[in-house]
Task: inverse folding
């Protein structure tokens, strides 16, 4: 399973660490990562890949939602096929 | 994949209101026919509740995993006039109640197919069904009804046109809001996923998944970036945007069909507005360069929009179908409501617009004292536009009982309000009273 995880919100110490830790706990491998500050807002995009036998999509979504609430960040996880369908011929 | 593309995709969904307007499962009811009406209805209930038992669950899963809002989950069935005709029932209200019960059990938003196809004539089931429509729409909340009164192949059934004018008045006499659930068509299509006009055509497979996309906001935002550029650029921009939007519909349809183990039918390439700000077809036309929708040039701008959406969408998916065009339902489009309220847009201009887009005079409130034959005249005009131009057209008007031009009718909740529009008061009564059939048109010597 491949998914794109986007993290947007107020910059603070430890966002990358917290998100990476959560993904690691979920056995989700990070295959690509980019991060920037846009108008003072923290924006990060990650591509994650994992075996659905180890972690169900819903479980990953719940864990990231919890983390987002805890850190006051907007964290989305979406299957990568959506982006491929819309952006690639 | 580039960061910019990821951002653009997320922005389309979160800020520009891109969504899947509907996943509609078409279900054939031919194997439910029975000479005993009660048995037929039990078979219908059983077939619907087993065939579509996972529809809502799967749609919610897809919404969650892909992050795309799926607004409506719907069912369309074989026209009930055909299914009930073999039964001994004298009216078909009970069939509508069965549809309602199944829809409620399944948690779907709407169920369409309380339908009769009378473009050339009536069979016994058609007469009973049409007579049942006012009560059927009153005792249900999710059932949608449609009647096809004309086609390019067979002409226009003027007896049906006259009758439907009276039926619309009868529905309004009970509750004008119920008129939202009835569409009078010419050239109705068999795979339309949009309500109130969806039914499952006789040439369709036993079950099928059809998807209706949306996205006026996305098109408008794209056009904001090409202000002042030649119209060719406008067309190209709409095509590229429609391509992206349609790809999403294709993906969602494929995934839904696979998970439900049902064949995937079509994607309907329609720009369907909602009353939410930034989700308006009228605003696209104004972005193209009109001071207001309704201004001279509106029909041309709409024709360009409609055609470009199709050209972009056709390449993006395997099968295109349904109505596939821009919708112009007045009460469901915030800018149309403003334009009508301010007198910038009238019914005559809307009628001209229906000649170049789908689907017709849609969600238009008219004075409550509009005579039935005037409504029939409006239906006949729309049917003629469809029949001559080989396209689908429809009428969904709401006579606001006890109200006059200048007032608004409140549909309650999310459906918003509609300003009551003036209708030409010269009577077509003698024309409508003639009855009979307008012959099918000749398709040579096109002018």
Result:
């Amino acid at each position: 399973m491949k998914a794109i995880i986007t993290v947007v919100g107020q910059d603070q110490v430890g966002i990358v660490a917290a998100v990476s830790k959560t993904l690691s706990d979920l056995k989700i491998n990070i295959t690509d990562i980019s991060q920037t500050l846009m108008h003072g807002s923290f924006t990060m995009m990650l591509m994650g890949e994992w075996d659905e036998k180890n972690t169900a999509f819903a479980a990953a979504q719940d864990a990231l939602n919890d983390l987002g609430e805890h850190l006051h960040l907007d964290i989305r996880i979406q299957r990568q096929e959506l982006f491929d369908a819309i952006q690639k011929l | 994949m580039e960061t910019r593309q990821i951002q653009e995709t997320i922005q389309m969904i979160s800020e520009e209101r891109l969504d899947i307007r509907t996943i509609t499962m078409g279900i054939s009811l031919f194997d439910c026919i029975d000479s005993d009406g009660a048995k037929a209805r039990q078979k219908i209930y059983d077939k619907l509740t087993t065939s579509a038992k996972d529809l809502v669950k799967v749609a919610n899963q897809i919404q969650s995993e892909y992050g795309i809002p799926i607004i409506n989950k719907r069912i369309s069935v074989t026209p009930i006039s055909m299914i009930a005709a073999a039964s001994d029932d004298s009216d078909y209200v009970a069939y509508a109640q069965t549809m309602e019960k199944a829809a409620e059990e399944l948690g779907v938003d709407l169920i369409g197919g309380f339908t009769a196809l009378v473009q050339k004539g009536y069979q016994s089931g058609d007469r009973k069904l049409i007579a049942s429509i006012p009560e059927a729409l009153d005792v249900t909340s999710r059932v949608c009804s449609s009647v096809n009164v004309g086609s390019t192949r067979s002409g226009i059934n003027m007896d049906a046109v006259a009758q439907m004018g009276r039926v619309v008045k009868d529905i309004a006499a009970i509750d004008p809001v119920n008129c939202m659930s009835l569409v009078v068509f010419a050239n109705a299509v068999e795979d339309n996923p949009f309500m109130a006009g969806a039914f499952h055509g006789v040439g369709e497979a036993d079950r099928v998944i059809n998807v209706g996309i949306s996205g006026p906001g996305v098109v408008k935002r794209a056009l904001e970036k090409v202000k002042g550029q030649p119209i060719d650029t406008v067309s190209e921009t709409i095509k590229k945007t429609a391509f992206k939007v349609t790809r999403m519909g294709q993906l969602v349809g494929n995934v839904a069909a696979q998970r439900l183990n049902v064949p995937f039918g079509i994607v309907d390439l329609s720009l369907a507005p909602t009353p939410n700000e930034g989700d308006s077809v009228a605003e696209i036309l104004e972005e193209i360069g009109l001071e207001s929708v309704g201004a001279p040039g509106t029909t041309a701008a709409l024709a360009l929009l409609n055609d470009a959406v199709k050209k972009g969408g056709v390449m993006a998916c395997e099968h295109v179908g349904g109505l596939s065009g821009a919708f112009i339902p007045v009460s469901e489009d915030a800018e149309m409501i403003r334009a009508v309220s301010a007198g910038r847009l009238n019914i005559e201009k809307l009628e001209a617009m229906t000649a170049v887009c789908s689907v017709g005079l849609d969600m238009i409130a008219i004075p409550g004292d509009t005579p039935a034959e005037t409504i029939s005249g409006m239906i006949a005009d729309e049917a003629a536009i469809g029949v001559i131009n080989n396209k689908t057209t429809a009428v969904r008007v709401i006579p606001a009982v006890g109200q006059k031009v200048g007032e608004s009718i409140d549909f309650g909740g999310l459906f918003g309000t509609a300003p009551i529009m003036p209708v030409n008061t010269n009577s077509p009564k003698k024309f409508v009273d003639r009855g009979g059939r307008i012959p099918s048109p000749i398709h040579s010597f096109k002018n």
Remarks:
- The interface with chain B takes residues 4, 6, 34, 45, 47, 57-58, 61, 76-79, 81-87 of chain A (CB under 8 Å).
- The beta strands of chain A are 2-10, 29-38, 41-49, 73-79.
- Chain A is about 40% helix and 40% strand.
- The first helix of chain A runs from residue 15 to 25.
